[in-house]
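Review form for a predicted model. The reviewer records the input and the model, then writes brief findings.
Reviewer: anonymous (R2)
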Amino acid sequence: MSKITINQLHMALSEANSIVLTVHIRPDGDAIGSMLAFYEALVGQGKQVRMVVDDTIPEKFSFLSYADSIQSVDAFDWSQPVDMLLVLDASTYERIGRVGALCSAPIFNIDHHISNTEFAQGLYLRPDFAATGEIITDLCKKWNWPITESMGTSLYLAIATDCGFFKFSNTTFNTLEMASHCVKAGARPNIISERIEAVSSERLELTKEVMQTISFYKHNTVAIISLERKHMIILGDDTDGFVDIIRNVDTVDIAILLKAESDNSTRVSLRSKGTDVNRIAAHFGGGGHIRAAGCTIHMPLEEAKAVLLEVI
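Model under review:
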């Protein structure tokens, strides 16, 4: 079994009593918001639910309800019986880190990435949705599961952050409709934006330095901004916003953020206005969406930039 219908997903969830929720490493707003909201929804349905992530949870998400209930892989009690490992917002098995190997339960996956490798026994995939949070909201509405104020806040954050706060091309009527349900439930868009977009003076100073790395290629249709090792040591995985600096340039179609993960490994985030960047990411074993994708190139940053430009 691989792809499943909404009814098959509902049946699987109905039959499972003990559920472990997880998301991809380097969790973003969609991953964390979706997991926290679905955790509350499943507990409301009488399920025994635990959350585990094989990575550090960014501090900016700490204001969300139940964020302090997310456990690390090392602290998690793997001896307890589990009926289902439910993976949210991850398109490959490798993206959930050590969780997959440590949990022997059947894997189910709710995702929206067109590059999903169908690694789960049951996959509910909606690539027509902008975010996994949009899927979770849709499921709760169709199943008549209550959306509480705290769920609405988490889901609104999940949806908004994955469509650039409704600026990206993946924003649809349904995206806005699901976000409106979250607001109706009590989500406050202004408060959420303020918490997520707040920057320190130190980060602003670093941004000034990073902007000096901006370079343009292919008649100014491709722009690259780079985070070197010294920047990454300070930022960790909190690199949101940097690619938007160049994405908004009028001539730019493809915006690329290069992140020096180590001296010989570079993470790549690609955004576009027209080009299929999922195809570019796939060339290096990555993936994502047509307009937003990522990959890792096992080369130093400058070498990675060169091979990337050759593919483009």
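Findings: The chain has a mean pLDDT of 95.
Further findings: The first strand starts at residue 18 and ends at 23.
Recommendation: see findings above.
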